[in-house]
Amino acid sequence: MADRLTIHKDGTACYDIVYATDLQVLRDELQRLGFLERRCCIITDTNVAPLYAERIADLIARAGDQAGRDPGSDPSDAKGNSNRPQIYAIPAGEEHKNLDEIRSLYRFLIENHYDRKSYLIALGGGVVGDMTGFAAATYLRGIDFIQIPTTLLAQADSSIGGKTGVDFEGYKNMVGAFYMPKLVFADVEFLKSLEGRQFVSGFAEIMKHALIKDEEYYSWLIDHQYEIQDKDLVVLHEMLVRSNEIKRDVVEKDPYEKKDRMLLNFGHTIGHAIEKFKDFSLTHGECVALGCVAAAFISYQKKYLSWEEYYEIRDMFVPFGLPISETALDHEEILRLTKSDKKTQDGLTRFILLRSVGDAFIDTTVTDTDILAALDEIDWDKKNVD
Ligand SMILES: NC(=O)c1ccc[n+]([C@@H]2O[C@H](COP(=O)([O-])OP(=O)(O)OC[C@H]3O[C@@H](n4cnc5c(N)ncnc54)[C@H](O)[C@@H]3O)[C@@H](O)[C@H]2O)c1
Ligand SMILES: [Zn+2]
Fold first, then answer.
1. How far apart are CA 5 and CA 17, in angstroms?
2. Which of 104, 122, 262, 301 has the most CB atoms within 10 Å of its CB?
């Protein structure tokens, strides 16, 4: 399996995703990029900080010393080491993915004199990655950043493609920028400390990749479900590479989501609406799984998928521990929330549907009635009363 993928933009190499379980490889990559001579701040969250941040800071401090980096007037940390990156921990959780936290982060960067040559490391899940990328895109009109994703969701999906941003008053990812990292370092060992519900959350995006683009990968996922659940590192590595290749192909073709990249929103219109409706009490992946089932149901209703195909897709989420129905859904409210999702343009909701497994397309004919019928389908209460 590949130990590196290169993501291109406008035909030229833009950044690499490097797969390794040895932090020395990270050190070598930072050296290759000339980053050991530069100052950096590790942005993480309060859960990941005690697990991994010190280790990464130590590695960079030692490597900076060896590279002869002059710390200049950098403030020393508690250990008196001025070559050591500072660690900034955002409170963990989607509810903190907002502009207030970005404001606190800007203040920290300003007070500690980070300049244009400094870079940020996003060490954490998709929330940390999206926020750090957004801060990097905007601080001093843009400074470099790298991604060290620590959740399955972030390794498989959110750390690549350059979408960064925050939620605004509960609306998902309403404020943001396209901004590419300089490196993505994916270490599957990080996944070992991830608790079950967060681990499986990443499968929704992985399944999405297979459903929209690659039937063969979809079968591979079914065949390897037990190794994946057991966190077999070799199988997880192969799965990440395959998911990343699919995302790479889509984002290289359409980096700014003018058309094809919209396919990656499969399951997200209804998924995001449920995420907001449930006030972020469900994980992103759980909501995406529900959204994928709903979108597959609409594809069946519109006669693209057979009933058997729809059932098979729906039931595929179950062994991976993802929901295919949910209780206490207010259908009218969720329908209203789908309209404020960014996928609505000129009053038309751009819905991603499936012609078959591995073949997604953009549809603009999905009606409110279709969405309400799909919500009936994933409504546990309704199904169990009827
Ligand atoms: N930019 C994109 O293209 C893109 C794509 C998909 C999703 N997203 C975004 O990603 C976010 C979801 O990401 P997520 O699922 O990674 O959530 P997350 O970042 O909130 O991480 C989930 C939880 O796991 C903890 N955690 C992270 N790594 C850990 C580890 N190795 N061990 C133990 N605990 C760990 C975190 O502290 C958090 O509590 C959403 O905001 C979503 O909108 C962005
Ligand atoms: Zn997503």
1. 5
2. 122
Q: Which among 102, 168, 197, 198 is the best mutation to test ligand 1's pocket, defined by most ligand atoms within 8 Å of the CB? A: 198
Average pLDDT of each block of 10 consecutive residues along the chain (386 residues)? Answer: 92 96 96 95 98 97 83 64 88 96 98 97 98 98 98 97 94 94 98 96 97 97 94 97 97 90 96 95 97 98 97 95 96 93 67 97 95 96 72
Instruction: State the pTM of this model.
Output: 0.94
Taking a C-beta distance cutoff of 8 angstroms, is the pair 94, 167 a contact? Answer: yes
User: Tokens for 146?
Assistant: 């790298």
Q: Pick the residue whose CA is nearest to atom 19 on ligand 1.
A: 125
**What is the Cα–Cα distance from 52 to 168, expressed in whole angstroms?**
29
Q: Phi first, then psi: what are they for 313, rounded to 5°?
A: -60, -50
Phi and psi angles of residue 148, each rounded to the nearest 5 degrees, phi first: -120, 85
Q: Contact 194/149 with Cβ under 8 angstroms? A: no
The domain 2-193: what is its CATH number? 3.40.50.1970
Sorted by where each begins, the domain ranges of the chain are 2-193, 196-383
Q: Name every residue whose Cβ is closer than 8 Å to that of residue 351 and which is 6 or more positions away in sequence.
A: 269, 295, 298, 343, 362, 363, 364, 366
Nearest to 5 by CA among 197, 223, 245: 245
Ligand 1 pocket, residues with Cβ under 6 angstroms: 45, 47-48, 51, 92-94, 97, 124-128, 130, 150-151, 153-154, 157-158, 161, 163, 172-173, 190, 193-194, 198, 201, 205, 283-284
Tokens read off for 69: 């980096």
Residue 173 alpha carbon, nearest atom of ligand 1:
43
Same topology for domains 2-193 and 196-383, yes or no?
Answer: no
Q: Indicate left, alpha or beta for 78 from its phi (over 0: left) and psi (-120 to 50: alpha).
A: alpha
Mutate to test the pocket of ligand 1, among 97, 127, 150 (most ligand atoms within 8 A of CB): 127
- CATH number 1.20.1090.10 given to 196-383: yes
82 CA to centre of ligand 2 in angstroms: 38
